[in-house]
Amino acid sequence: MSLSVRQRRILADMGIPVWRARGPAPGHAGVAAVAANAPAVVEDSAPTPTVSEAVTPGTVEAPPQVAGVPVQALDWEGLEARVRACTACDELARERTRTVFGVGDRGARWLLVGEAPGAEEDRHGEPFVGRAGQLLDNMLQALGLDRSRDVFIANVLKCRPPGNRDPEPEEVRACRGFLDRQIELIQPEVIVALGRIAARELLDSDEPLGRLRGREHRYRGRPLIATFHPAYLLRKPGDKPRAWEDLLRARACLSSP
């Protein structure tokens, strides 16, 4: 990946040092080298493996029905309407301001999945707004991507958990059919799980994020790369270079980066 002056400036502003590679590293042709001299701060305490291996998600409960029509048969408009009207989780439906369906290119090659909406997302009805969203947008721009036309961004949950608590397992199960249908409609070439909860829920794994990073997984037959949540990177900016490496790894999964 050849970085423009603007992309290098964005990375520098985020504290991610880069240099020009003299030649492509084995297995990473065309990908810019990234300095990895940041402090070893991880979202979970486990070390990051480098050996690539697949993780197969477990069985997922059947998706909810919409007026007798399975969610997996809905088009975009029907799916969005069903999400907006959903009351499967009493507490979430009662406390939410707006559902957060997702945003971006519905034919994108990239799908980014976070855990659940926060307070700002609940107010705006759009995922990843506020400071965390700005950081995510900057990292996408450094890859030459724009959230409005190159990626689709969604969450495991479509409603904000009160107090920004972690999603409950039954809430994730109730919402999984919506995300799976979005994946079927988008047909992305790569999925990026943003944060511990998104990665562990999509991969049906109890492993910490440190063990899930650094290798390619599969979800519904598509490559999945786990990385840090932007909100975590705001708290631990020393891990931004590692997150950048994860995004480069995701980019390498594309058929023609």
Structure characterization notes:
The protein is α/β, with parallel strands linked by helices and 257 residues long. The chain has a single domain, classed as Uracil-DNA Glycosylase, subunit E. Helix content is 36%, strand content 12%. The chain has helices at residues 5-13, 76-85, 90-95, 119-124, 130-142, 169-186, 196-202, 209-212, 230-235, 240-252; strands at 65-66, 69-70, 103-104, 110-114, 151-155, 190-194, 217-219, 222-227. The strands form 2 sheets. Strands 3-5-4-6-8-7 form a 6-stranded mixed β-sheet, sandwiched between helices. The protein has a two-stranded antiparallel ribbon with strand order 1-2. Helix 1 packs antiparallel against helix 5 (130-142). The longest helix has 18 residues, at 169-186. It is globular.
Q: What's the SSE blueprint?
A:
Layout: H1 5-13, E1 65-66, E2 69-70, H2 76-85, H3 90-95, E3 103-104, E4 110-114, H4 119-124, H5 130-142, E5 151-155, H6 169-186, E6 190-194, H7 196-202, H8 209-212, E7 217-219, E8 222-227, H9 230-235, H10 240-252
Parallel strand pairs: 4-5, 4-6, 6-8
Antiparallel strand pairs: 1-2, 3-5, 7-8
Helix pairs in contact: 1-5
